[in-house]
Amino acid sequence: MKNKLNELFSYYNIVPNSIDIYISALTHASYKNEHSEDYIEDYDRLEFLGDSILDLVVAKLLYKAFPKERSGFLTKTRSYLVNGSALSEIGKNFDLLSFARLSNGEVNNNLDRNKLLEDMFEAFLGAVYLDQGYQKAEEIISTIFLPKIDSVDIKNAEIFSDPKSSLQEMLQSEGFDKITYQVASETGNAQNKHFIIEVVCNGIVLGTGDGSSKKVAEKQAALDALQRRIK
After folding, report:
1. Rounded to whole angstroms, how far apart are CA atoms 110 and 187?
2. Residue 1 or residue 114, greater confidence
């Protein structure tokens, strides 16, 4: 794994002070449960740290990019840029799953890979911050997000920041009053649930979403419906 990480370090021009902190960022809790002798932590705490740093840097970038916009717009645009789907897509671009340390059971669990990618990307940012400092973390985040900010569609930023409300408002404006979110499937155990949810209007499925909770899956279903209608 250490050799493979060199690809990531080379791409972002990182000379690591501690390889272990990056391994930690890519270690799932299930792996720790199977390897109690392993001294490296899982990514839980680093993900919390990376999430905070990501919010701070993107807020700073938006503050500079939109000097005339009020805080409401900036908040909605940040939510649009760092939503779970966007972060999991970045995680795919990083090919983080190829670095991940997972339990035998988790390796074969293809249910909620988007959430895993999102968490590991944020944990990676937390590891960069602790190992390289704030400036390097800011540099990486800026490299990823400045092009996205430059191409922000203001209308879509407003719509996608709160997809359930936006979908409801859009349909009401078209004369449709009632939409429902229906569980298409529910799998896994109490510690590892996975839901697939459909958003339905007048018996027609408008969008489908999945996630580790109904709330997450409903939001993804609304996003899917919005994306289909706006294209």
Report:
1. 12
2. 114
| Cα(30)–Cα(107) distance, integer angstroms | 10
Listed in order, strand segments (DSSP E) in the chain are: 180-187, 194-201, 204-211
Alpha-carbon separation of residue 215 from 114, 128, 194 (angstroms): 15, 30, 11
Beta bridge partners of 197: 183, 209
Buried/exposed 172-186: b ≥16 CB within 10 Å, e otherwise: eeeeeeebebeeeee
Which one of the listed residues 119, 122, 131, 218 is annotated catalytic?
Answer: 122
* pLDDT tens, position by position, 203-214: 889 989 888 888
Instruction: Please state, in angstroms and rounded to a whole number, the distance separating the CA atoms of residues 132 and 126.
Output: 10
Catalytic residue among 42, 47, 51, 112: 51
Question: What is the per-residue pLDDT for 107?
Answer: 66
Pairwise pLDDT comparison (164 vs 154), residue with the higher score? 164
CA torsion, ordered 48, 211, 192, 183, to nearest 10 deg? 150
Question: Which residues are CB-contacts of 95 (< 8 A; sequence separation ≥ 6)?
Answer: none
Q: Which tens digit of pLDDT belongs to each residue from 92-109?
A: 888 888 888 887 766 666
Q: Does 20 qualify as catalytic in the annotation?
A: no
Active site residue 177: no
* Residue 72, CA distances (Å) to 4, 24, 156 in order: 42, 36, 14
